[in-house]
Every structure is written in structure tokens, then in C-alpha cells.
Amino acid sequence: MAECQDRTKELYALPLASSTEEGGRLDEQHNMLKLHLGSLFPCPDAVAQVMAGGEEQTKSVLDLGSGSGVWCLDVANQFPQAQVVGIDITPNLRQTMPPNCKFEIWNINQGLAPFYGQFDIVHLRFIQGIVDHHAMTVEAVKCLKPGGLVIFLRAGEYVTEDRTTVTPAASSRMPDQSWYQRLWCLLECGSTQRGIPTEEYDHDYQQGFWDYDGIDTRKCGAAFITIPMGTWVATSDPSENTRLRSIGDFWVKNLLRVSKVLAHVMVTSGRSEKEVESLRANLEKEHHEARIRLSMVIRAIWGHARGLGDTKDQNQDPAQGGNVTLPVIASEPGEYRVKTIFDSKAAWTKFNTDLASTMTPDTKGLRTIPGFDPMEE
Ligand SMILES: C[S@@+](CC[C@H](N)C(=O)[O-])C[C@H]1O[C@@H](n2cnc3c(N)ncnc32)[C@H](O)[C@@H]1O
């Protein structure tokens, strides 16, 4: 397949995964996420259901924006009977691959017509570079076989230690607040300015798969996953502390690395070189002081395509219309809650609305208004 002809490579802000350094970073990030979740998937039960019976019938998996290809490689090893296909705008240069895994160059912004109706799982994780997120999601659902499973993951804002409040971003009014959060805001704002509508991405993730044509509303889910930034976690289990601290330590260093390669996103959206430099110095300071205990958010959403013979009439969200009960979200002292699962749209959207309402006006301004509250010192 031909290399992409449009502006996708320009729009995609990170270095291409085919570079040795970025490929290595993505591999490490994947391994740390796998360690955090204890799985390659945020919804292992739903995966087990669709992958059952793979001995008699070949299963197939599509990874959208496969990057270094490490997720595909692990999935191909875990399910030797399945065929795994990774697609990306950049070629995959991995030397040794299992025979049931292959990569193709494909720009998702062209749609996914060659892949329609063929897959038991369609997976997408941490992908920017999509011009129309909603249209792409509709395309991804079309790639499923009846009963197949679509799974998306996206990294988001930072939350407080108890996971229920958005950590305020550092601003000229509140310079002692989080510079990690300020970085996230400037990147979101910069990406939107560059043609990647991050607010639309957020909206789609906060709605989940419940309302897509072809999806069985009864079998959708979402997960609120958090990763502690740094080594502050103290649970009652020493081995869990070791695990979470190694993950937290990796993630801070990963963020500091990413802040270097994404400096251009902030500059092209109106921030001065001096401000970007000062931001980076403050990120290092926040890391060394370890004063603010916060976690990075990952939202995962999934849904099953309707099976053969299912009708639209069966699509009813069990919680729609009634009182909404939220699952337990907050971590209690002495524990760290990695993941909370939601099985109703009403609960998931209420939770996201409640969380967004805790965002300070400065944090909102930094995310949405180019050049808002410059801080050069
Ligand atoms: C941050 S990397 C994540 C890679 C992988 N999903 C993972 O989680 O390790 C995002 C990947 O999406 C790819 N990508 C971005 N826009 C794309 C598009 N329009 N079509 C295909 N791939 C795209 C990039 O080339 C990059 O490899």
C-alpha cells in the first residue's frame, strides 16, 4: 500500500515510530502499561469471550496506529491461532515477528474500507493524527465481524491522589500547582490549533461506544484507569508498592522525554521558546520536589458489534432513565485503585461530567484558549 499522501505525517506531532528512539520508547511504554493492567487489554473478560474457540476458527485482530508493533507482537504470541494485523502511516521495522503477525502501511484518515467486516477485535491506543475522530470511530466499528469487540484507549488529564478531582494546572495565579497538568493543557490546546481536535476526541471517549450504529448497547463498557506519577504510592502491600513505584518512576521520565519532543507543538500554538524552556525547568522541579501526588488518567472504552440476528430494539442501556449509581472510584488511604469499570452509559457520562466540573477556570483556559496566561519565568 502506498505511503500516505495527505498532511497526516505533518499533523502527527511525535517522532515517527520507525525511528529507533521513538520505537524503543513506545516498547517501554507498552511494557509498563502491561505491567500496570496485568493484561494487554483493559477488558480481559470481553476479550476472552470473543477469542474463545480460536482453535476451530481463525480469529483476527486489527491494531490501528500500531507504532512500534509491540502490542501486536504480544497479542500474536498470546493467541497463536489468531491473525494479527497492525496498520500505521510509518513502516514497521521490527526484525523478528511471529508468523501470525503482519503490518501494513495505511493512513486511517482515508477510511478503513479494505478492512471492513473482517475482525474479532479492533484495537486503538494512544493515537493522535486523526483529523475526524468520530468518523474514524464509525469506520473502526465497520471493521468488526458480528459479535466482534472494539477497544480504544486515550491518555488524558491528571487527577488528585484520591482520583476524584482534576489537579489544578500551575498558572500565574497559582504557580505552586501542577506543571505536569499545565503541560497536558498546552499540548491539548496546541494539537487543536494544529488541526487535531482534541475536544472531539475527549467527547467521544466520555460518551463511550453505547450510541454507535452496529454496536450492542448491552455489551459496552468503559474503564477509568490511573497511573501514579512518581514514587509516592504507599499501600499496605510492599510488593504492590514496588510495582507501582517502578511504573510511576517510568511514567514521569517518559513525560519529561515527551515534553522535549513535543516542544514544537507548544511553540506553534503561540507559546514562546522561553516559556517552553521555563515549563520544562518547572516539570523537572515538580519531579524532584515530589510535593504533588497525582495520577495520569487513561480512559478505555469498548463495545461488541451486534451478533447475527440481533436487532436494534434490543439496544437498551440498563441504567437509562433510572437513578445513576457510580462504581467506587476513590482510592482509600493505604490502597491504590488502578482501574474502575463502568457498564452503563449513564454512569460513565455522569462520572466524566462530575470530574470535569472540578477543573479550575485556569486549567480550562489553558486547554482551550491559545496563549492564555503566558508564564515565561
Ligand atoms: C503514540 S503512537 C502509539 C502506538 C501504539 N498504538 C502504542 O500504543 O504503542 C501513535 C501511532 O499512531 C500512528 N498514527 C497517527 N496517525 C495515524 C493515521 N492517520 N493513520 C495511521 N496511523 C497513524 C503514528 O504513526 C504512531 O505510530
From TrEMBL:
Entry-linked SUPFAM superfamilies: S-adenosyl-L-methionine-dependent methyltransferases (SSF53335)
Protein name per the record: Methyltransferase domain-containing protein
Organism superkingdom: Eukaryota
Organism annotation: Serendipita vermifera MAFF 305830
